[in-house]
Each structure stands twice: as C-alpha cells, then as structure tokens.
Amino acid sequence: MYNLKYINKFHYLYKLNRSHFLTLWVSIIIYSLSYLLLTIEKFNGKLFILGMGIAVLGIIYSVVCLIQLKIANKYLSFIFIIYMIRQFYIILPGFSDFSLMQLMRFIKDPDLFFSYLVPIVILIPANIFFIRKMFDIFIYLGILVFLFFPRFASEILYTNMNISERTLWTMGTGCGFIVLTWNYHSHKRKIIAFLAVILSLFIATVMARRNIMLTFTNYIIFSILIILFSVRISIKLKISILFLLLLTASSGYYIFNKYQNEVFYKITDRIEDNTREGLYDTFMDDMTKSDLIFGKGINGTYYAPGIEEDVEDREVIECGYLQTILNGGIINLTLFLLIALPAVYLGFIKSNNTLSKAAGAIVLLWLIDMFPWGMPSLNIRYILLWICIGICYTKEIRYLSEKELRNSLLSRIK
Q1: pLDDT (0 to 100) of residue 96
Q2: pTM of the prediction?
Q3: Do 118 and 124 meet the contact criterion of CB atoms below 8 Å apart?
C-alpha cells in the first residue's frame, strides 16, 4: 500500500509552487551561464553582468516564495539558526564600505556575498515532485556538455582552467546526481547522464583538474555501490555490473597509458605534484589563534607572497575546510559539520530508498572534495548540496519505499 498521504501532500505543494520552482532554477542557470560567458573576454561583459543581476533577483524572489520558516527536524532547526546567524556575522564587514561598486562585486563573484546565503535553500521543503522536475533540468544541462565540448574544446576549455572547472560544475553535476539515482530514470536519461559524466571526467583529466576528476569518478563509484547494496536486483545482474565496471576501468587505464604523452600530458606531469603544502604552511603562519577560532570575515585574507603575480594578500586558500576557517573560523566549520555529518548518517543508514542514500552521497562527496577544493559558491553544485541535506533530514522522504518513490518519480506530473 502506497503512502498516499505524503505523496498527495508533495503533489499539492508542487502544483501550488511549480512556477516559483521553475523561476528558481531558470534564474540559477542564467546566473551560472552568464558568469561562464563573463569570464570569456571576447564577449560583452556588461550584458552578462546585467543577466547575473536579473538572475539574482529571480533567485531571491523564488526562494522567498518557496521557503517555510519552520523546520520539522528540531536538531536541524536549532543548529541551522545558529549557523545562519554566524553566516550573517561573517558578511557584515562587507557592508562597512557598501557602495554600488561593492554591490556589483557581490553580483559578479559567485564565491562572495551570495555564497553565504545559499544554505537558506534548505528552508524550501524537500518535495519528490520538485526533485522530479529538477532531474529534467539536470538532463538538459547534461546535453549542454556535449554541445559545448566541440565548440570550446581547443579554444577555451583546454586553455582556461577556470572556465573548464565552472563549466563542468555547472553542466555535469546534475548528471552526477542522476547517475547516483540510477533506479529512478528512463534508459534514455541514464545513457545521457552517464555519458555526460564520462565526458566531464575526460575533460577534467585532460585539463589535469584533480579535484574534479575525484568528484566525477566518485559519482560513478558511489552509484555502483548504491546499486549493489541498496537496490534489490539478482546476483547475476550484480556480477554483470561488476564485470562491466572492471571492463570500463581497464579500458580507461589502457587509453590513458596509450595517450598519456599526447592527450593526457598535463595530468601525467602533475600527478605527483604537491602544490598545496607550502601554501597551507603560509596560511597557518599568518593566522592567529583568534583568527583560527573566529575567522577574518568575508573580506579575510592571508599573507602569501609569491603565489600569484603582484598579489601578496590572498582571499582564496583552495581548500574548503581552510577557506571556511579563514572567513568564519573553526566555529563556522564546526556548525557546518554538525549539519552535514548527521545528514550523511540519515541518508545512508536511516532511509528506505536510494534517493535518500544518493542525497547522503552528495553530502559525503562534498565533505571529501573540501580537502582539495569544495568552495562555497552560488552555483548549481553548492545549491544541490543544501537541497540534498534537506532531503536527508526529511523523514517523509526517507521513509518512503523504493517502489513508492520510483512510481512517483517516473510518473507523468500533471
């Protein structure tokens, strides 16, 4: 017997708010794509700054319409309130010399002001029908991976690492979530998502972006683990999946070895490079005990001469954990972990379906990626993180059976 009470409730809320939900994701995509194109100097920057500004207004409007101030989980409610108070305290220094130029800076840089407000999306109630539409949006972004690749491969993606990273996070992340929730999608969608993840991994390998390689590899590994240990399938099919995984890994290894001095020369040269150790030592030398505990605020910097040309005081440390400490201190990091770690536990252990386990995997992969990167930002990947945290804390979704979720996610939404 299906749990119709909660499914009908989800459907009612979806019908009531679907226009706001669509506005939210369209605005997020416009902002992300505008930022990507803004970094390409050949385009008209003013036009894309305008697009980012309009998108920010759309995000704010839709979030205000969708959020509910009451969080059902009392533990999450208590920690989240303290966490957001801390977030606002971090961004307060940014208003000390507030001006139009400062506002433009906040809009243009997704890693600044608005990244601290992204956690508010957890107040949007997790809804299986919203998630179903979110998958639709993610598959369209996955298709863009194929469309962008031939056009920009030689001219932009392979020559500008910043654009490559942002492109893959924007267009490939959603397909990673689709691969993790493999059991809820049509065959066509599975093929598109899997190929988009493989292509993203290929681009990351060619560009020698080790943190992205780690993340997209983990999408595949964790999806297989979820299928093998969470989905009820025959032993024969599980063996077939393991054989296919071994065959794919062997083929990838063969291709890498054959073309490592031609296509993959960058990652061959960088595979054993330790580019962060000296930077981390410099960071720790500049931080006082007070800085480590409370952070330096949104405008926090650390003294690191010689890392960047003509820059001595850097704002970015290239490690999510240290970046959190730089801006908000160990206090902010602890509050975040008090939210994220229980979400992983609830998603993996206290759930009846693979959607919750996939959400837990997204949170866990973010915690892993915070070692080599994992930087808060107003982008699809960081927004998905907080949506998945919301899923993990929503017991109405966690307690739904696999059959109930599969029928709801594969059914046609009216």
Answers
A1: 72
A2: 0.90
A3: no
